[in-house]
Amino acid sequence: MLYFVGTPIGNLKDISLRALEALKSVDEIACEDTRHSLGLLNAYEIKKPLFSYHKFNERECSEKIIEKLKQGKNIAVISDAGMPVISDPGNILADMLIENGLEFTVIPGACAFVSALVLAGLDSSKFCFLGFLPDKNSERKEFLEKYKNLDVTLIFYCAPHDIKKDIESIYSVYGSRRAVAVKEITKLYERAERFDLASGITQEPKGEFVLLVEGAKQTNDNLNLTEKEHIEMYLAQGLDKKEALKKVAKERGVSKSSLYKYTIE
Q1: pLDDT over 70 (residue 246)
Q2: What is the pLDDT of residue 227?
Q3: Which of 116, 104, 89, 102 is nearest to 207 (CA)?
Q4: CA gap 133, 137 in Å, rounded
Q5: Which of 4, 159, 173, 243 is spaced 20 to 30 Å from 135 by Cα?
Q6: Three-class SS of residue 124?
Q7: Whether the Cβ atoms of residue 25 and residue 126 lie closer than 8 Å to each other
Q8: Given this model, what pLDDT does residue 250 score?
Q9: Cβ within 8 Å of residue 55, ≥6 positions away
Q10: What is the pLDDT of residues 65-123, one digit of tens each?
Q11: Phi/psi of residue 134, nearest 5 degrees
Q12: First-to-final CA distance of the chain
């Protein structure tokens, strides 16, 4: 069995009992940076063989993990912080496990963008996680254009040296929108700065950021019509006068009585 194990994103106490049980029970642990992961494992007195599994050796290492599993070993995969696979290594491995008919499961844990969504105060009923923006400016613009008209909260990951550039890139495509930059989640200096894309952030670009941007405001082309034209449009679609008045009043944010004169005409 292979376990994708969620680990703390800051506070070491955020690890689950089930995650600790799994890390203690497996034969080996694959991690992004063995030195970083030792801090977590030592804190809970877990001593297991570690090996590096990162974006630069992901495919090659995934093949080795497949072989270890076929030999009967149990393996845990962790990232430096949060959930493996989510903007971290693991996606290639998951595909290969499915191709080889090997079992794997997830042990849930902290995830930065979910926590940031709670802290941001933007619409959390629907959202779209977009991860890191491409490096090249042309690719950035093309990428951002795809999601420009979504009326959902957009969530990005930003490295500290990229945060200001990322905000400028998003503003150049989306224009002025509310945004929130969240960093140091679960740590002593946790902070959520609310700002407008046009103005940018005021804080120093230190630490990894989760950037949340307000979704596009949906426009109703029917509002470009006059009240009479609006009503006539629905009448032409087969609605009776009562239903047409009701729909137009709702869309325009006015009372039905203020529109009644147009049906008499």
Answers
A1: yes
A2: 86
A3: 116
A4: 10
A5: 4
A6: coil
A7: no
A8: 80
A9: 89
A10: 999 999 999 999 999 999 999 989 999 999 999 999 999 999 999 999 999 999 999 99
A11: -60, 155
A12: 74
Token reading at 232: 């006539």
Is the distance from CB of 185 to CB of 116 less than 8 angstroms? Answer: yes
CA atoms within 13 A on the CB side of 5: 32
Q: Which long-range contacts (CB under 8 A, 24 or more apart) does 240-246 make?
A: none
d(CA 241, CA 234): 9
Q: What are the structure tokens assigned to 69, written together? A: 């599993």
What is the band of 220 on the pLDDT scale with cuts at 50, 70, 90? low
Distance from C-alpha of 29 to C-alpha of 7, rounded to nearest angstrom: 13
Nearest partner of 163 among 187, 191, 133, judged by Cα = 133
Q: Does the reported pTM lie above 0.90?
A: no
Distance CA 163, CA 156 (A): 10
> From CA 115, how far away is CA 135, in angstroms rounded?
25
Please name the amino acid found at residue 5: V
Chain center to CA of 59 = 24
